Amino acid sequence: MIYSLLSIDYILSHPFLNKLISFKFNFYDEELVDTFISFLKALALSIDSTTIKFFMNARTNNFPLLAITCKFFNHGETMVKNAARIIILTIF
Question: Taking the model in full, what pTM does it have?
Answer without folding.
Answer: 0.81
